[in-house]
User: What shape does this take?
Amino acid sequence: MADSPWRRLRGLGRHLSGERGPLALLALVVPLGVGLQLVAPEMLRRFVDGALSGSPDGLLLTVAAWYCAAALGQTALSTGGDHLAARLAWRTTNRLRAELVDHCLRRPAPFYQRHPPGELVDRVDGDVTRLAGVMSSLLLEVAAQALLVVGILVALFRLDQVLALVFAPFTVCTLLLLRRLVGRAVPFVTARQTSVADLLGFLEERLACAEDLTANGAAPATMRALEDRLGTLYERARRAARVSVRWPATVQGLSAASVVLALVVSVWLHARGQLTTGTAFAALSYAMLLRRPLLALTARFQELESAVVSVGRLAELLREHDGHPPGPAAGGPRPAAGPPLPAGPLDVRFDAVCFHYEPGEPVLTDVSFRLRPGERLGVVGRTGSGKSTVVRLLFGLHRPAAGSVVLGGREIRTMDVRALRAKVALITQEVHVFHATLRDNLAFFDRSVDDRRLLDALEQAGLTGWLRDLPDGLDTVLGAGARGMSAGEEQLVALARAFLRDPALVLMDEPTARLDPHTEELLVPAMERLLHGRTAVVVQHRPHALRHVDRILVLDRGRVVEHGERTALAADPASRFHGLLHTGRAA
Ligand SMILES: Nc1ncnc2c1ncn2[C@@H]1O[C@H](COP(=O)(O)OP(=O)(O)OP(=O)(O)O)[C@@H](O)[C@H]1O
Assistant: This one.
């Protein structure tokens, strides 16, 4: 039962809290609508029996008028109910969307390696939209039709007990069958939706680097990979559709049988004089009405299956809490608020830190170093030696497997991630420019940051001249489809963001890797201003670019092979750093 589709759908209930008013209104509208549907065959019975027994025209007209009024009322209630349910569904699923986005925004780096953006978009939007469709109409329909089935059985019992005795077991068996059927296609629909998410992830990644792909002649390979994925998706969608349509056909057959059953039993009872003609008509009408819940459900069977799968996928995403650094190990104590970090530049300590991404593949082994407040460290080493990993650990993106990373006297794993990030700025070679104004790009959409601070940050980053050339100043829209920027300008905007936050520790991971030496030189004054008076860790491939650091740490295959004052190491021909400076190779 743990994975039952019904339980999955029921899990959404908590998102309905706060919607008591609309729910109460729905609870009134649904039974009223059902009641009016049940009244119609009764009106028919009275009309037919009245006409056959020669009742006065006035009475027949009154019955006909009530019949029309019931039909109109039922239509109005059904339209109102649909509208109410749709609004309720959108509000509820928007809450779920917000919860999902908030959850994703709080996840650490490994989460984004497991889930590419395209897949997350499919979950946050695709899955939730599928769910909204079900919640707005299908669930309401299920509730209304369940009530209708009960009402029909009661009405048949009132008409004739034999009719009720024939129909009750038939209906119960059909509903039990239906109950068993929902969920049969879930594994197939899950496979189909996983394929859709995979396809979206693939498209998002390939379209984002379309320029690189075409320039390197990778377009044909991309098309082949796309065809493979489309083939898999087609196959999975076909299997899901095959399972989903097999059962609705059975249910359609059963519902047709219910009408034949009503006809046979009514004719038989009528022939025995146990049923009036009007009652036989009414019984037939109720049998026809009984088809509706079955057909309504089966016609949207696939939709229901998809929604059940979506709920499962969303629950799975929300359950992902693993590897959320810096925090306690699973089951451990929550990080206490603890004393705040000291003001001013922070001291940094790595004590015998070991780290791996994959078990059995150490990336850092026994790494120790210490930086006093305001000291700047340059980290060099061959590609893959673990330089970026040092920075990621300091930014709290990962947790060390052993040893400790200490910042301002506090072990990082005991700190709240927000408190940590408020003090630390990370600048990498990847700068994301949002499709938004320069103001929002600098302040990360925080409208409380005043223009004076923004202009000051731009000046510190050396962007005042660039700002002057922008058509709308701080309100100029940047990013895709708007004002373009050079790689150097993007990097300077990243520096301006850092100035704005006035961090106590600056982490730089090859911030100039994408730039040519000339543009890199243009950035140096701004970088030196940012590092001035702050503790910093700067990862650089090009040791020449480390003029502004005090100390050097050389890594080799995850181990510290040299650590000391930059000037001393640069002057020592036996040092690895000297080798790197002069030959580009470590001694
Ligand atoms: N997310 C990850 N999952 C698994 N392995 C990883 C991950 N990130 C890095 N690695 C591996 O960890 C090792 C160290 O990576 P890191 O990025 O720290 O090296 P680096 O010295 O900064 O390299 P480069 O100079 O090329 O940027 C490499 O072997 C790399 O393949």
